[in-house]
Design goal:
Helix content is about 30%, strand content about 20%. With about 450 residues, the chain is an alpha/beta fold. A hairpin with a 2-residue loop joins strand 12 and strand 13. The longest helix has 23 residues. The protein is globular.
Length: about 450
Amino acid sequence: MVEGVEATRTVEGGTSSPDGAIVVVTSGPAKGKSLRIPSELGEVLHIGKATDNDLVLLDDTVSRHHLTIGRVSEGIEVRDVGSTNGTRIGNAKITQAIVEPGTIVKAGGVELSIRIELAGVEIPASSKDHFGVAIGAAMSMRRIFGLLEKIAPTTASVLLLGETGTGKDVLARSIHQESPRHDKPFEVVDCGAVTPTLIESELFGHERGAFTGAISSRAGAFERAQGGTLFLDELGELPLELQPKLLRVLEARTFRRVGGNKTQNSDVRIIGATTRDLARMVSQGKFREDLYFRLAVVPIQVPPLRMRVEDLPMLSKRILDGTGEPMLHISPETERALAAHDWPGNVRELRNVLERSAHFARASGERELRLFDFPGGSPPEEVIEDVFRYKPGTTYREARGRVDHRFERSYLTWLLARHGGNVAAAAREAQMDRKYLADLARKHRLKNQAE
C-alpha cells in the first residue's frame, strides 16, 4: 500500500449517510481524505494503522486499531478501542463520547474533523416554508431549512455560499435565532468592508496605544459576541496574513486584544458567508486549507432567486408589508414580468425594485404596481429628472458638471442600495477602487448607505 493513501472497505448497509455526516482527515499523510459515517444504528467506521480498517492512517502515533466512529441513539459516537497514544477531543482524553458536527477528534497526532458534506446527499425537506426569519416554499429552500433545523441547535460552524443578495445574512440570523444562543449577542463583521490594517482590531479588539489612532481600548467582535454568534460576512476577503490568527482562536478558543497581554476565553459560534469559491481559493493558495476545514463544517449553497421564482409572491408580500404599503396590488401581468427577469442582484435587487415601486405608487395615489416600475420597463415622463434642459448663459463646463453630478449620485445610490451598503461588493461590481467609491459616497452625502 502507498503511504498516505486512504484505504476503505464497504461497511455493509452503512455506506450512506442521509444527513451528510463525514469524517475528514485534517492532518498527517492522509490529509484531505474523507469517509461517510454510516446511517444505521450500531454500524461503525474502524480507524487505525492496520490495512483492515475502513480509514487507514499511516502515522507512527496511530495504533493499528485506534478508534471507531458510528451511530448510536444519542447521535454520533467516538470510541477509543485501546490505543497506545489515546483519543482526544480538545485537551480531554476520552474512551467514549457523543459528538456533533464541528468536533475535532485527535487520534494520536492525527486530527479528524466531523463535518457535513451535502454532495450526493438527499436532505429531507422541511414541512415548513420558513426558518426563523427566512422564507421560501421552493424545494431547494425547504431542503436548506430541513438541514438547518437539525444543525441550528448544535455549535457547528456553518458556511453559507452563494451569489450576492441571496439572503445569506438572513439565514445567518435565523440560525442564531433558532439556536440555544438566541438570547446572546449576534455580531456581524463584514470582512470586505473593513480596512485590512484594522480588521484584526475589529475581530479581537485593541488596547489603548496599540497602534496609531488607538486613543482608547475597544472590545472586538469575539469579545462582544461572547456566548452568542459571530457572523463573518464576505469571508473570502479576509487577508491571508490574518487567517492563521483566526485559526488559532477557533482551535484554542482563546484570544488577546491587539497590544494586550490578557488571554480571554472565547465561546462563540461562527457562521461565515462568501460569494467566492473558497475551495478553489484553497487550491490556489489564497485561503488556508486548515481554516477552511474549521469554517466549512456545514457548507450550504444558497440558491439564486432565478432558481426559486416560485418564491417571488411570498417574498414580494414580505417586502411590501415592510414598506408600510401592504395593500398594494401586483397584477398577474406584473407577476409574469417579475418571473421573467433573471434578478442578477437576487432578493436584494427585488427589495430595491419593490420599495422604489411602492414609493412611486404612493406618490401617484395608485394601489397597483405598474410594469414600468420593474426592470425592462420605461419610467413615465414625470418621473424622469429634467437634467438635459439648459438655461441661457450656462457654460459647457457647468452643463456637463451638472449632468455628471446627477449621474454620479443616481448611479451610486442605485449601486450601494443594490449591495445593501456593502462598499466592497459595490466596488467589485463597478470595477472601482473601494476607497474612491467610499469618497464619492461621502461627497454625495450617501455615507449612511455606505456604512
